[in-house]
């Protein structure tokens, strides 16, 4: 196209030069912008960058003003050209202008295309960036959702653990009694709270200042309660530290006892060595024996003194614990008194709110009645006044008409001739006047009807607004009642479930306590049997003292555990009551806000003064209109139209103001609701944090208690092992002493028996010469004594093992019950619903990791506890078998009577031995 165009232009210029050889070129070649090669526009799927496709040097800027190329026309001298040539030149010039314009449009279009492509690339880049951002946000959301799911799973697992452990919780009898008493007290308190809530149902009108003051007082009381709770926790920690110090002192005392026992053992060894050295003479032996007895008596007296000191210390500790318990009970009573005082203040607040609400309702009703009466009175007065004015106007008009008729008659009589021509005009004027008066009367009637209709509409709107306000208040009351009924039902259901769970736990605890008591009685009987067998008073005293120490420690631990449980229950219940009080206060605030809205709406209604002013204005306007209607009909009509327009505009303005006020009130209510929701959310977060902290404390206690119990078991086992060693060593010493004494006695008897005269040997003489019967009897006696002592030591060892296994099983049960208690408290404080049996079993299975489903305690018992019970049963069986063997194997063998004198002496010696 460009080449053809150029060839065409060259041909044209050549033709012009041929025709006009003397002249130059008619039109010089216009400067043209360099045209880039035509490039196919890219599709939307394949976008080519702008810089690669369109170089910047070839394109002008978009906003640049395109200046037209100047046309250089030379001055022509000579003969003018004909018209055909001028028209051709003009057409060529126009064609060139069009071509230049087309080039400029192409350039602008290309620039626009470049801008469009650039914008498309930017848009695609922005879309890609937004997609990447959306993908990142999706990934973040997925991660957050996964974290939330994990947290929900963890929470569900914790709740399941709590529910599973709730069914297996068994506490001591005293703790169960205290728990039932506290639950009953809380039920009574909750019943009182429910009654208070029923009474607070109709309380919605109270002053803001009084509520704020009461809320401040409640917050101060709450802070005081929190301080008291913190103080109680610190005191409990101090008591725990005291108990730890006492346990350390007891450990020191036990170590001192051990050292003294070792010293005694060393002394006994020295005495034994001395006895061995001085066995040659009986007198020295007796003296050493007496000295040994005196030393043992002195050491036993020292032991007694030590144990008396231990008892005194334990008594002092018990007195300290009792003092601590009394202090705790006094503080708990103080807390209850403060709570009762807060409740009494709340009841007083409720009563004042009820009185204020009733007064406000009565005032609103009185104002409504007064407004209705005043409106009806104003309507009646306006109607009466308008009717009176119309009658007066009619009378005046009739009177004036009569006067005019009389004057006309007189004039007609006087001027019959003069006024004949004007009678027709007068009659026409009278007709016009009558029509105008009728029109005016109809207009006045229409205006009165409009005013009455508007008054009726305004009254109807007022009644509609009042009815809407009443409906809204009724709906709000109904909603509050529904919410309160639902909350009361849910709480009743929860309390019923709590009572059922408590009764079940009490039954289980009673059953297990009976079983434990029976087992303890059996153990006590066996211990009594063993103690009867053991004839050593030192061992008996040591065992008794150890038992008393263990019993006192167990009682102290049980009391501390019960106090901790009761304090935890009290804290959780106080938090629950505080949350309920806060909810009730929020509801009271909402009711007060609704009452404020009602008061503002009632205050926005028109008052009697406004209505009186409106009446006056209407009366004045009616009078002015009636006076002016007689004089200037046209002016009255124009004024009425303008007034009606002004009234319509004022009504529109009033409606707009009302709409703005309503929108402002709605926005204020929405803001208040959002603030209340935020406050509730913050309160819930604080409550959850407190519950988490308490749960952490309980978990720490649950982790530390097994270690403490294990340490106590190790201490008891060590003391028992030392006692067993001491018993065995004494047993071996007594055995060696008995053997030596028997040997000495046997030698003395052989020396002291006289030699019989030589005679014929009889069978008895042969036996006594050989001394076989005597040796056999001595051997049997020694064996029986040894066997009896051996069986006694074995029975003691088996009994100690049995007690160890029983203690470990009982400690394991206590640990599991502590975990159940913590899970129950945590689940009830978070969800407000008690856990089921299956959930509690699953939670404990997750915690311990080793649970047999078909074991004791309804599918919940650790494996190691079952193994310990089996070992305890095996030890009991072996113990019983040893006792039977001892009873069957022990037989008393009496010596035969001998008549001879020599045999009688031997028999007497035998009986002495």
UniProtKB/TrEMBL annotation:
Region of interest (Disordered), residue spans: 1-33, 737-772
The source's domain of life comes to: Eukaryota
Instruction: Give the compositionally biased regions (Basic and acidic residues).
Output: 1-18, 737-748
Which spans are transmembrane here? 785-803, 810-827, 863-888
- Transmembrane helix found in the keyword field: yes
Q: Which InterPro entries match?
A: CCDC154
Which keywords are on file for this protein? Coiled coil, Membrane, Transmembrane, Transmembrane helix
Q: Which residues form a coiled coil?
A: 95-147, 208-270, 361-407, 619-679
Xref: PANTHER family? COILED-COIL DOMAIN-CONTAINING PROTEIN 154
The protein in question is named Uncharacterized protein
């Amino acid at each position: 196209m460009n080449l053809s165009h150029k060839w065409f232009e060259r041909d044209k210029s050549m033709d012009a030069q041929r025709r006009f050889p003397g002249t130059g070129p008619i039109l010089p070649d216009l400067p043209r912008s360099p045209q880039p090669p035509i490039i196919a526009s890219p599709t939307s799927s394949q976008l080519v960058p702008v810089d690669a496709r369109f170089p910047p040097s070839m394109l002008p800027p978009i906003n640049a003003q395109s200046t037209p190329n100047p046309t250089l026309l030379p001055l022509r001298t000579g003969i003018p050209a004909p018209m055909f040539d001028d028209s051709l030149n003009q057409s060529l010039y126009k064609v060139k202008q069009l071509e230049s314009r087309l080039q400029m449009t192409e350039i602008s279009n290309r620039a626009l295309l470049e801008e469009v492509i650039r914008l498309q690339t930017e848009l695609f880049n922005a879309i890609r960036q937004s997609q990447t951002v959306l993908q990142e946000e999706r990934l973040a959301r997925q991660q957050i959702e996964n974290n939330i799911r994990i947290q929900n799973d963890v929470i569900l697992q914790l709740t399941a653990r709590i529910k599973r452990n709730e069914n297996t919780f068994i506490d001591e009898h005293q703790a169960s009694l205290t728990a039932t008493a506290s639950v009953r007290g809380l039920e009574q308190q909750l019943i009182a709270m429910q009654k208070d809530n029923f009474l607070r149902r109709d309380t919605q009108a109270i002053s803001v200042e009084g509520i704020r003051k009461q809320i401040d007082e409640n917050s101060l009381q709450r802070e005081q309660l929190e301080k008291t709770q913190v103080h109680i926790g610190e005191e409990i920690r101090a008591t725990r530290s005291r108990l730890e110090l006492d346990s350390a002192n007891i450990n020191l005392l036990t170590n001192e006892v051990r050292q003294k026992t070792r010293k005694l053992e060393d002394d006994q060894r020295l005495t034994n060595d001395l006895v061995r050295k001085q066995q040659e003479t009986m007198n020295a032996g007796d003296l050493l024996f007496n000295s040994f007895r005196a030393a043992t008596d002195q050491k036993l007296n020292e032991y007694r003194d030590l144990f008396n000191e231990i008892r005194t210390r334990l008594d002092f500790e018990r007195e300290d614990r009792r003092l601590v318990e009394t202090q705790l009970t006094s503080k708990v009573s103080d807390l209850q008194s403060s709570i009762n005082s807060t409740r009494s203040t709340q009841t007083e607040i409720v009563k004042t709110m009820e009185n204020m609400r009733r007064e406000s309702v009565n005032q609103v009703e009185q104002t409504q009645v007064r407004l209705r009466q005043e409106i009806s009175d104003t309507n009646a007065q306006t109607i009466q006044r308008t009717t009176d004015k119309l009658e007066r106007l009619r009378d005046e008009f009739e009177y004036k008409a009569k006067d005019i008729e009389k004057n006309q008659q007189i004039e007609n009589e006087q001027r019959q001739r003069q006024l004949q021509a004007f009678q027709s005009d007068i009659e026409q004027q009278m007709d016009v006047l009558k029509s105008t008066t009728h029109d005016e009367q109809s207009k006045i009637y229409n205006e009165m009807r409009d005013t009455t209709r508007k008054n009726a509409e305004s009254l109807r709107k007022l009644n509609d607004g009042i009815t809407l306000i009443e409906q809204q208040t009724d709906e709000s009351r109904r909603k509050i009642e529904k919410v309160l009924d639902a909350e009361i039902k849910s709480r009743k259901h929860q309390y019923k479930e709590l009572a059922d769970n408590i009764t079940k736990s009490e039954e289980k605890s009673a059953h297990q306590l009976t079983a434990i008591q029976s087992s303890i009685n059996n153990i006590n009987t066996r211990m009594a049997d063993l103690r009867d067998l053991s004839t050593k008073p030192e061992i008996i005293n040591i065992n008794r003292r150890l038992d008393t120490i263990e019993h006192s420690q167990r009682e102290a631990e049980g009391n501390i555990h019960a106090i901790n449980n009761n304090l935890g229950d009290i804290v959780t219940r106080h938090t629950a009551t505080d949350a309920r009080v806060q909810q009730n206060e929020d509801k009271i605030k909402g009711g007060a806000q609704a009452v404020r809205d009602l008061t503002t709406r009632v205050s926005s209604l028109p008052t009697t003064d406004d209505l009186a002013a409106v009446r006056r204005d209407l009366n004045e306007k009616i009078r002015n209109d009636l006076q002016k209607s007689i004089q200037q009909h046209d002016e009255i009509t124009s004024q009425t139209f303008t007034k009606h327009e002004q009234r319509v505009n004022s009504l529109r303005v009033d409606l707009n103001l009302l709409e703005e006020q309503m929108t402002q009130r709605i926005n204020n209510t929405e803001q208040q609701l959002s603030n209340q929701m935020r406050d509730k959310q913050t309160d819930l977060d604080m409550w959850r944090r407190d519950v988490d902290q308490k749960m952490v404390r309980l978990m720490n206690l649950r982790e530390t208690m097994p270690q403490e119990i294990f340490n106590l078991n190790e201490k008891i086992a060590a003391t028992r092992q030392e006692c067993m060693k001491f018993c065995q060593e004494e047993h071996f010493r007594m055995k060696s002493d008995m053997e030596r004494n028997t040997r000495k006695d046997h030698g003395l008897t052989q020396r002291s028996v006289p030699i019989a005269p030589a005679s014929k040997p009889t069978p008895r003489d042969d036996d006594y010469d050989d001394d076989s019967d005597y040796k056999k009897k001595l051997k049997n006696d020694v064996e029986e004594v040894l066997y009896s002592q051996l069986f006694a030591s074995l029975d003691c060892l088996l009994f100690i093992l049995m007690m160890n296994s029983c203690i470990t099983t009982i400690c394991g049960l206590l640990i599991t019950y502590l975990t159940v208690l913590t899970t129950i408290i945590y689940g009830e404080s978070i969800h407000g619903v008690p856990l089921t049996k299956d959930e509690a079993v699953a939670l404990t299975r997750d915690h311990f990791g080793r649970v047999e489903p078909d074991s004791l305690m309804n599918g919940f018992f650790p494996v190691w506890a079952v193994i310990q019970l089996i070992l305890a049963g095996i030890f009991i069986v072996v113990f019983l078998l040893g006792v039977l063997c001892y009873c069957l194997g022990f037989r008393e063998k009496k010596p035969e009577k001998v008549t001879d004198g020599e045999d009688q002496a031997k028999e007497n010696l035998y009986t002495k031995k």
